[in-house]
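FW: tagging you since you asked about this chain on Friday. Here's the raw sequence from the shared folder, copied in full. Didn't touch anything.
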Amino acid sequence: MKEQLEQLQVEALEEIKQASTQKALNDVRIKYLGKKGPMTEVLRGMGKLSAEERPIIGELANTVRTTIQSTLDARIEEVKAIELEEKLKAETLDVTLPGRTLTPGHSHLLQQIIDEMEDLFVGLGYTIAEGPEVETDLYNFEMLNLPKDHPARDMQDSFYITEETLLRTHTSPVQARTMLEANGKPIRIICPGKVYRRDEDDATHSHQFMQIEGLVVDESISMADLKGTLEVFVKQLFGETREIRLRPSFFPFTEPSVEVDISCFKCGGKGCNVCKGTGWIEILGGGMVHPHVLEMAGYDSSKVSGFAFGIGVERMAMLKHGVDDIRHFYTNDLRFIEQF
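HL: got it, structure written out here
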């Protein structure tokens, strides 16, 4: 048995020496030191030895096992070092090569307009409110004084998911949700976000566009407050020399309703091709919140009033920067995007 142990040690050490990978070394460990290996078989046979031979063979077996294990550990560290060196050589980085130029990015033009308007209205004491883009018919239409048989719905023919679920056609549902949550308290919010309508895609229309709506509800709110707010907004976005005018209009959720024009920034109101000779450019719609809308949201319309307005972000960007086609905002053409 002594000769058998010494032979096992010689064979194991030779295989360890020849092994060049961690996997091969692990196989050697299992082969000689595993539960089914020859070392285990030798130790199991020690019961047949005499009392005098047993401690001698036991000590030799422990010495052989320790020698094999320590040699394995040392060889594994050598192989790890060799493998790491080879990996580093294969992944050598030539620091003399010129670096890649990283071009700094910037916000999209539409986001720039949104940020500018948000900064303005937050400075006026408004808060920013957001809501889901997939809306229910209740919030998108009915809570805004547009019952199911109202003809004004045709103007906002949209993308329906079910009979009662659709992609929102404006951010007004956020206003309805906010009024319900306010429980009769004053409100001063703006609602930015994407909206969807089944429009033909052309130079001035898109099936998806960005909108910012504003809503103020409190005691003694009047049309004068709406006009004053819009004058501040227009002068901030288009310059101090711009003037506004209000024209009567119709929206189911406001009464009275107005279309808002600004004096042409190109001709100063004299008339040109941009304003089609009128001196004015239509930019948004608004009005006083309809009493029925207030009542449905839990307000007493005899005590409080409010105004609301809706702004098309793409239209603001097109007017401010002279963009002639709304589709430029969505085609990801760097030649366009990098101009702003």
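FW: DSSP finds eleven helices and ten strands in the chain.
HL: agreed, and The chain has a mean pLDDT of 87.
FW: great, closing this out.
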